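agent: user wants the full assembly modeled, not chains individually. Plan: 1) parse entity lines 2) check alphabet per entity 3) run joint structure prediction 4) return tokens. Steps 1-2 passed, two entities, 661 residues total. Proceeding.
--- entities ---
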Amino acid sequence: MLQADENGRFGEFGGRFVPETLMPAVLELENAYREIQADPAFQEEFQFYLREYVGRPTPLYYAERLTAELGGAKIYFKREDLNHTGAHKINNAVGQTLLALRMGKKRVIAETGAGQHGVATATACAKFGVECVVYMGEEDIERQALNVFRMKLLGAQVVPVSSGAGTLKDAINSAFRDWVTNVRTTYYLLGSACGTHPYPTIVRDMQAVIGREAREQILDKEGRLPDCLVACVGGGSNSIGLFAPFYEDSEVAMVGVEAGGEGIEKRHAAPLTAGSVGVFHGARCHLLQEADGQITPAHSISAGLDYPGVGPEHSYYLATGRARYAAVTDEQALEGFQLLCRTEGIIPALETAHAVAYLPQLARELGHGAVVIVNLSGRGDKDTGVVSGALGVSL
Amino acid sequence: MNRIEARFDDLRSRGKKAFMPYIAVGDPTLAATEEIALALDGAGVDVIELGIPFSDPIADGPSIQRASERALAAGASLEKGLRLTEKLRPSMQSCAVVMCYYNPIYRYGVESFCEAAAQAGVDGVIVPDLPLEESGELYEASLSRGIALIFLTAPTSSPERARRIAQRSRGFVYAVSLLGVTGARDAVSADLAPLMKTLRAATDKPLCVGFGVGNAEQARAVAQIADGVIVGSALVNVIEAHIGKPNLVEAAQAFAVELTQAVKSV
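--- prediction returned ---
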């Protein structure tokens, strides 16, 4: 896998653009992370919980009916939806909670958009007996009521964020403000591979289990590497988790699917497809911004992709051509959502539905004989309210 | 010599402390900011911090968050802040410091920004989300144009870090008094005195204390151990309370006069 340089940069992207109050904490986290990386006991403990608690390895599943329906490349799904709590987020939440404990922090804070990371963090904190506070935008609280209730059941305090647009970026702002205030006692458990160094590296490493397993599984099933990897990209954790272990396999193409919202000429959440480079939440990366450097609120039907920035490693992949990025609209995502329900009996998260929505085009492009791995990053129970609303069905 | 450095040399030679208020450019309107800035200048403040509003001010508490939202709604931007400074500069006795998060500066272009800021008569720049490690480009660009890039120290900065920060900081060192975001507090942090002692050991440069200073009594107390006192949220609260009232500018000035007197009484 690609490694960030000593300043946390992937090429020109990344870095540590945070207030001085946090710099010592960021450096402390870097040191602590270096230690656990080199500590076999920690890695063994992490692997133990991934196996026994999260339920890994997840299957790499051949979607036979979907493949037939699309009439092209062979589609495999990496079933992260089968993890405990129903999404890939738990991999990182368990790993970072163990890191927080190792650092002697007794209080964990997190941000959440769709609530999947919030639920995963609340779960890990309940499991390991750590106080948990989750910041969540008011708009997201409304559209993800089920996950809010789950977090509360798990003993987390959910703090509504009304500033800004009341979505994921505002929840991250609030989490940063909490961290600045309580930095000596509190661990900030960031949920995506974005933000200030070392988070893009920590989260990527903890999610890279997805790509490592998938690589082994596809070699086992097909006797060769896939032609293409596909995953949705919000902040970019499930995608970089799948992509990174294939970084050096130059024959494997990668497509990150962003949230095109109402279309990239209108409101969307696709900084790699239609944004520009700036500095946001601690990192130099692609983002949605005005000509004067104000951040533009993102829009997506999927709360988990509703973010104007992206992880710096994706910016680097884009700049170097290692991966390409596309955007699918809210409407296309809804079609992808139903397509997977109908052909495979799997209700995907709306985030994941964006990756699914890109498959008809990709499967045709690649044609018969090609092999594609799609990260099925989460299950969609949480989204049935939003989807039914969008389809005009009242529950 | 940079105007801020000259100001502190003068204050030191007279045994006086500096008072520096913060206002958000465009709060509640750009025209009001112009009038308020001149009123603050008339109150005898030493430095005026002109805050450029940013959509995502992670180092700021509720007062300045709201001010930023009002200012953005009024159409404020970094460019407009520079134009305002340029307009105010000839009639201002005080120093003009622009406080701006990094992205608007990055987007403007670091070199272009420093060029434009120097032409507008900006004396110093504070960037709350630009730590030492990321400051290279702006440091060089500001240095060559005589603009003081002012760095912040925090209670979490080790003595060694504080020393390196102070070494790079020009004009003065902005000492963040507490762990947390900007905003008036009931009392000055009890940790401030030992913090100042550590910072004094790290540098001879002027130390100005900000975050959490909200009234004349607190300002006086801080002035006793610091070279300057920075007040933002409390002034922004006064402005907020007088939006739409005919005495907005007078109220802001009265507050500045009271705090200037408190600081100068030390």
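agent: reporting back. Chain B touches chain A through 40 residues (CB under 8 Å). Strands of chain B lie at 18-24, 47-51, 95-99, 124-126, 148-150, 152-153, 173-176, 207-210, 228-231.
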